[in-house]
Each structure stands twice: as structure tokens, then as C-alpha cells.
Amino acid sequence: MKTVLQLLFLCVAFPAWSQNAGNLQHWSAIGNPALKGTYKYDSRDQSYTLSGGGYNIWFNRDEFQFLHTGIKGDFILTANFAFPSTAGDAHKKVGWMIRESLQDDASHISATYHADGLTALQWRVLRGAYMRDPEDEIFSTKKHPQVMQLERTGNTITMRVANPGEPLQVVGSQEMANLPDSVFAGLFICSHNADRVDTARVWNVRVEKTVPNTWHPNPAVRSTMNTSEQSLGGRMEILDVFTG
Questions:
Q1: β-strand 147-153 against 137-139: which pairing, if any?
Q2: Which residue, 43, 74, 150, 153, could crosslink 210 as a Cys pair with Cβ 3.0–4.6 Å?
Q3: C-alpha distances in angstroms, 124 versus 7, 104, 106, 113?
């Protein structure tokens, strides 16, 4: 009998556990776009097909489709993104978003992939505030990256990007002091055209809830740690080496 050992050992600064990607099942039309979208989840490869309209995610209000979950504390969001068609507006966009509420003028921050390859960390720091160009965004030097990651550590949100086979590279970080501890986080799509619906594919979706910096396996030690102390953790994942 032939046996293939398919193990990948990962050591990270904080231990984490993964939620079932299929738990992203709350589908909302933020800003009531004129044309609504749909989503499909394929459990075989944990991929999503998202479609949606909306004028934009900008200025002081947004219109888009949002596939989300409620999440509290620190976490990491990672996935691969692609538009199967170049038709439509060059600034149609898909990505990860962290949002204080489902209101159209809510404070939020997003890792955004545009159809023309523009990739950026974009945000609205206060509810109802006008998003400004370029004050409220950090552009990636990498065009058309396939992998995007958004991590929350306290009030700091960090975006990373990569192509398959590359290490994740930091785009930038932004302090979001007005985001509550409990937020809405998930995938978004916006056609950047109120009269059109566009489609994107998202796969390798991971929503990871990170353990706080002060976590320690010994409760007696954990109770004496302050917020500046950290303990080294680890994680093991089992992956198919042939398919990734």
C-alpha cells in the first residue's frame, strides 16, 4: 500500500482556528442598489461566485453586495480573487471588507481588487464621512495580484497581497479606532455601474479567528499577562499537496 503524507506545518505568531468558509451566508444589498446580485457556494472546492451591481463604494455612501458574517476581536481574512470577464467598468471591484454596520454610510475598510488590476486598501474612518482620493487609500505596487489578505489586530487593519507561489507582501496598514469590537466581515462585489451586474470568482476562502496576544496554555500564567506580552503559538494544517 502506498501512502502519501500530506502535511504542512506552519508556525505563526498567534495560534488560529479556521471557520467553515460556507458560514459566509449572510447576503446583503448595501445601499439598496437598483440591480441586486446573487452568490453561489461550491463546497467541493470552497469557492464562491458573486454577482452584484451598485454605483460605487466611495464618497459618503456605498452600493454593493456583501456576503458576510459577524465576527469579534482579531482575525485574518484570506482568499484568491478573479474576474472571469473584462466586460464592464474597469473599476468594478471585489475583495474583503470589514464594516461597522450594514448602513450605506458606515465606517469600513476593504482590500480591493479592481478589474483593471488596481489594488488598494481603502477606508472610511467615520460614519458618513467622504472617502477621499488619495488620502483614504494605499495603493499596491503589484497589479492583478490573485491573493488578498486583510488582518485585524486591535484597531490596526493590515492588507497583504501575493500571486500563487509568492510570499504575502504588505500593502499597508490603517488605524480604524471607530470600528467596534464586533463587526461585519466578508466578501463584497460592486459593478461600479448602477445599471449593470458583474460577476467575480473567489476561492481558497479562509476566515481565521486569531487568539489574543495574551493567550497562554497555562491559565495561571495567562491571568498574569499584560496586553503587551505575547506567547508563541503554532498551527498545523492538513493540505492536499496535489491540489493545494
A1: unpaired
A2: 74
A3: 41, 11, 8, 17
